[in-house]
Design a protein that fits this description.
Elements lengths: L6 E7 L6 E5 L4 E3 L6 E4 L5 E4 L11 E16 L2 E12 L16 E6 L7 E3 L5 H14 L5 E20 L3 E3 L4 E2 L15 E2 L7 E3 L18 E3 L4 E6 L2 E4 L2 E3 L8 E14 L6 H7 L17 E4 L5 H14 L22 H5 L2 H8 L6 H4 L4 E16 L3 E4 L4 E4 H5 L5
Parallel strand pairs: 1-8, 5-10, 6-9, 18-21
Antiparallel strand pairs: 1-2, 3-4, 4-14, 5-8, 6-7, 6-10, 9-13, 10-11, 11-12, 15-16, 16-17, 19-20, 19-21, 21-22, 22-23
Bound molecules: zinc ion (2 copies).
Length: about 425
């Protein structure tokens, strides 16, 4: 059992007043319902959770690590690009004594953040996440017809989950209070694993604008916080809140609009000439005649900075990239406008650059042989807000002839 599809809920305490709160896995901006103070969970590369135990008191707990990935896998086949939702976990330290995955303990698992106060022996992860990701991708590939020439994954969440056990005559699952193995032939030697107590702790940042001190705003899952006082946009990093370079395309639509955020990424592409707009016309075989000067317009990859259903994600990414918006951008957020939250990090967008290229390269029959040898390295990025007209069922961008179904956005919270 390696496919799980679990909704994780996190039992959490307000860092200001200690009041209890329940968080969803994608929550970043947390407003305490008691003290009303906002705090921002610092998204390190991954969060570390533990399952709460029901072990008899006095048992010494051993926490075993699992890597967990929840997100979308895109696989490029000769017949086209296939996508699959994946929610899976796998041992982060190989051992025959513990279950292969976290497993289906319940549909909604209640987790806690790991903290230095948690008593127990935490086995150290020894299998790198990349290795586990390879296993996940291989399993997806097995189910697909034909040869996969490129794969990329967009993680909605990536985490390390520690499951508690205790050792008696067998290894006991401390969540279910059930044995997980046969009676042990010889005494269980914990020293075969590296481990010990943990010193990891979830980090919090205040949500006050570092520029002017105003309380910033954002949705619960916002990866970019907006200061409405000085109109700056910030993202959390190890160094604290760092300012994001933002821009918007001026709204020339004479109707109700919402601004959708996109990552515009400048990248070095090796093994293919794709440095300018003129190059793009050749690579994608666009029905346009390159005008003088187009070889001086730098080519950029575009991709949604928000979660959206996979089919729409692919389409938006491609349509924006092929459109290469060249109108003059305004180097700030659209003041007073409705802006859709940024909830897909630029790091995930960078993961899809080759997928993006594979989708628009022509002729199609050359793509499977060409793509594997191409290297793409992201150089810089900009967050760009693009105005979309709000219609009955769709959001429409008339200039670039792009439409996205409103339901595709609304439902994407759960991917
Ligand atoms: Zn509080
Ligand atoms: Zn400010």
């Amino acid at each position: 059992m390696w496919r799980e599809n679990i909704d994780i809920l996190i039992d959490h305490q307000c860092p200001q007043c200690g009041a209890p709160a329940e968080l969803a896995e994608t929550d970043r901006l947390v407003r305490c319902s008691y003290c009303k103070v906002n705090s921002y969970l610092v998204p390190s590369r991954y969060f570390r959770y533990r399952l709460p135990d029901k072990a008899p008191s006095g048992e010494r707990l051993v926490y075993f690590p699992y890597w967990r990935f929840k997100g979308m896998i895109f696989s490029c086949l000769e017949t086209g690009i296939q996508h699959r939702f994946l929610d899976a976990s796998l041992q982060a330290a190989p051992s025959p004594f513990f279950p292969v995955s976290v497993g289906l303990r319940s549909q909604a698992m209640k987790l806690r953040f790991v903290s230095p106060e948690t008593k127990g022996w935490f086995i150290k992860p020894t299998t790198p996440l990349e290795k586990v990701m390879e296993v996940f991708l291989e399993r997806v590939t097995l189910d697909l017809p034909g040869t996969v020439y490129h794969q990329s994954h967009i993680g909605e969440s990536l985490s390390l989950i520690y499951a508690p056990f205790y050792i008696g005559k067998t290894v006991m699952d401390a969540v279910l209070n059930q044995p997980v193995s046969q009676k042990l032939d010889e005494p269980f030697d914990l020293n075969q694993f590296r481990g010990g107590s943990v010193d990891w702790k979830i980090g919090f940042l205040p949500t006050l604008c570092p520029n002017c001190g105003w309380d910033m705003e954002g949705s619960r899952d916002a990866l970019a916080l907006h200061c409405k006082n000085c109109e700056s946009v910030w993202q959390a990093s190890k160094e604290g809140m760092t300012r994001l370079n933002v821009a918007h395309l001026p709204d020339r639509l004479d109707e109700e609009t919402v601004y959708l955020p996109f990552w515009r990424i400048r990248a070095d592409v090796s093994g293919l000439d794709l440095a300018s707009y003129a190059d793009l016309i050749k690579v994608a075989n666009l029905p346009r005649v390159a005008q003088p000067g187009w070889d001086n317009i730098p080519f950029r990859f575009w991709g949604p900075a928000f979660k959206v259903r996979p089919r729409s994600f692919l389409r938006l990414m491609q349509q924006m990239t092929l459109s290469q918006p060249r109108d003059k951008l305004v180097a700030q957020v659209p003041k007073g406008a409705v802006m859709h939250p940024v909830n897909l990090p630029v790091s995930e967008s960078v993961e899809t650059l080759k997928l993006n290229l594979a989708g628009f390269m022509r002729p199609k029959n050359k793509v499977p042989d060409t793509i594997p040898d191409i290297r793409i390295r992201a150089r810089s990025y900009l967050l760009v807000y693009i105005p979309f007209a709000v219609r009955h069922h769709d959001l429409v961008q008339p200039q670039f002839k792009i439409a996205v179904n409103r339901n595709q956005l609304a439902l994407a919270g759960n991917l």
